[in-house]
Amino acid sequence: MIQQKSIRIQTKRAALEFEVDANSRLNQRAFGGNASDESTVVAIPTSGDGWVFEPAIRAVHADGNTSTDLIVEGVSQHADLTCIDLRDPEYPFYLQLFVRAIFDLDVFEMWTVIRHDEESEVVLEAFASSSLDFGTGDFRLTQFSGDWADEANMTSEKLTPGIKSLDSKLGVRAHQFTSPWFLLSKGSDSRTPLQSDSPPLPVRSSEDEGVVFAGALAWGGSFKFSFEVLPKGRLRTVCGMNPYASAYRLAPGVEFETPKMVWAYSDRGTGELSRKLHRYVRDEVIRDGNSPRSILLNNWEATYFTFDEDKIVSLFAGAKDLGIELFLLDDGWFGSKYPRDDDTQGLGDWIPDLAKLPHGIGALTEAAEKLDLRFGIWFEPEMVNPRSRLFEEHPEWLIRQPKREMELQRNQMVLDLTNPEVRSFAYGILDTTLRENPGITYVKWDCNRYFTQPGSSFLSPQNQSHLQIEYVRGLYEVMGRLAAEHPGVQVMMCSGGGGRVDYASMRFAHELWPSDMTDPVRRIFIQWGFSHFFPAIATANHVTRSGDRPLKFAFDVAMSGRMGLDIDLAKLSECEREVAAVAIATYKQIRDIVQLGDLYRLESPYSGSRSSLMYTYGDRAVVFAFSLGESFGNPLRLKGLEGGKQYQVKEINPECGRELTLSGGFLSEQGLPIPTLGKFESVVFLVTGQ
Ligand code: DGJ
């Protein structure tokens, strides 16, 4: 037992402070800026022994006791890691709370490890990774929600007494309707204005000012974030894997580790917060986060399932001429008895369809290699169509409920990755394809449905509620093997658009596909949403024909992230080919700025007809402005430049010859002159320090 100790976890501008009280209970001061002087409250609320709000931990002990009490037994702090050891004073039930603080980024990772030595299983019914208190104030929650082809729409609301929860019960992926991340801004407490001398401040969080937190759960399965404004106005958050239908029977001696809940803090608005998170994602989440990505041509929207070897090879030459660096062969390349000619069959039969590709994948990789084009391929390793050989051979490998009619989504079922045999199969098909075709250097990992009938024939009847957790653990084993054994193969994380966009799945990938919505007009909003949590280098944006927008506009929107194309190059007119060639050459000129630079969001598409953003990298910057309606040429105030420095500014894509030299001070205060833009027109400027 430890008595009365204060534990301070400090980053550059934030602090998380715990206190062990005279009874060895762990308490917490409001999380936030350095100088928090709020009183302390319980740090890890447990169910059944006094706490009547949302618990972080609920356990049913081996003797049936449904309460848990935790006292601190030890604290260790080494470098960036703090570990607080707690136990139930009456039971050999242990919980370790870990906090890793990344000093420069004001990022805190929190997770727990639970274990016990009781005489038989303990049932865990709530197992949050983090249960932080934020003190009193006016809180606004911003969530990023939507649906297939409509991801990451931003909605903000004031939190009021009671619980607001964001959650997912989808199992195989964190998101289709709600992203596993959110923003939480904190303004001054306006509940009791009469007690204060000065009038209450409005809730305020903008790009450049205000106290704002970001939360993200590094977990690719079901999650739950609860925001509870308690009676005296304190905000308590409880975040972690979703305990819904997931009671976990923990055997004695086995460790149960919860995923990392990632918190970031800024007292200078969401712009700085995103830049910190971008740095975190590059350095700690995605693979090779500091190496620029190739320009990719995908054939999905260009051909869908209708292609053959000649068609694919014919795309290579055109791609090379335009300066494209990587070709991605999408869905439809496999299946024999049940060729994958549409989405009704073939999924699970990962052998090339010889009717379409008579010489296999090898002929394609060789043809690509001759032109010095990299080659990538699409997989959906966790899924099966009932019309497939795999289904005929292994009907028992599915996630489904006995005695219920199979519920198909996109004509497919999920394979049961809790079963080690299924995991070997899933890894085996990737491994075999990559070993047989060493020319493949890129994999798009897709996932086009979620659980609706969560039953496993591998898990025992009493462990069915482990499915949601064990599935994701199994998935990570397969993804981990792919990354470890094929380190040279880049991975795009896709899930029927932006469904697998959590900070854990992305550890196995280089980039993500944010949405199947590729109309650049809608895409501006989707990319805006994603930009709060992911840097441009991780966000794949493809130019397509969707929406039939001007091609330059489509290119400019794609260029503001990791640019690629998904169009039939053979169908480009002469004039369009010229637009594409110029855009690709332009992107190569600014790729390092976009992919490695710092993002400044300038004008939100949610608040006007012009949306704009810029990236700075060293003494160069690139500015994008998109017009969603008629937009008048208001000067655009730039950010991130040095006030006293002179900058040359020129319009690019295409270059129009006009150049201006203006000081950083002028550009940030008076603004960059922008022409009046018609609907769906756009401009890109390169800014170079002199
Ligand atoms: C859904 C993905 O989001 C698309 O990009 C494409 O790969 C299709 N699946 C293929 O079935």
Task: Please tell me about this protein's structure.
This protein has 690 residues and is α+β, with helices and mostly antiparallel strands. The chain folds into 4 domains: 5-131, Beta-galactosidase, Chain A, domain 5 (Distorted Sandwich), CATH 2.70.98.60; 133-285, Distorted Sandwich (Beta-galactosidase, Chain A, domain 5); 334-367 and 383-441 and 449-488, TIM Barrel (Alpha-Beta Barrel); 599-689, Immunoglobulin-like (Sandwich), CATH 2.60.40.1180. 20% of the residues lie in helices and 31% in strands. It starts with a strand and ends with a strand. Mean pLDDT is 95; it is low at 190-204. (2R,3S,4R,5S)-2-(hydroxymethyl)piperidine-3,4,5-triol is lined by residues 300, 330-331, 378, 446, 448, 494, 496-497, 513, 516.
Structural class: alpha+beta
Main sheet record: 10 strands, antiparallel
- What compounds are bound to the protein? (2R,3S,4R,5S)-2-(hydroxymethyl)piperidine-3,4,5-triol
Could you name the CATH class of the largest domain?
Mainly Beta
Summarize the structure.
With about 700 residues, the chain is α+β, with helices and mostly antiparallel strands.
Features:
Beta-galactosidase, Chain A, domain 5; TIM Barrel; eight-stranded parallel sheet; 20% helix; binds (2R,3S,4R,5S)-2-(hydroxymethyl)piperidine-3,4,5-triol
Secondary structure layout:
Layout: E1 5-10, E2 14-20, E3 26-28, E4 32-33, E5 41-42, E6 57-60, E7 71-78, E8 81-87, E9 93-102, E10 107-116, E11 122-127, E12 133-136, E13 138-147, E14 150-158, E15 162-167, E16 178-187, E17 211-217, E18 223-229, E19 234-241, E20 248-250, E21 256-257, E22 261-266, H1 269-285, E23 296-298, H2 300-303, H3 309-322, E24 326-329, H4 360-370, E25 374-379, E26 383-384, H5 389-393, E27 413-414, H6 420-436, E28 440-445, H7 467-485, E29 490-493, E30 511-512, H8 520-530, E31 540-543, H9 551-559, E32 562-565, H10 574-596, E33 598-603, E34 610-617, E35 620-627, E36 646-652, E37 659-663, H11 664-669, E38 682-689
Parallel strand pairs: 23-24, 23-32, 24-25, 25-28, 28-29, 29-30, 31-32
Antiparallel strand pairs: 1-2, 2-3, 2-4, 3-5, 6-11, 7-8, 8-9, 9-10, 10-21, 10-22, 11-20, 12-19, 13-14, 13-16, 15-18, 16-17, 17-22, 18-19, 26-27, 33-34, 34-35, 35-38, 36-37, 36-38
Helix pairs in contact: 3-4, 6-7, 8-9, 9-10
The structure holds (2R,3S,4R,5S)-2-(hydroxymethyl)piperidine-3,4,5-triol.
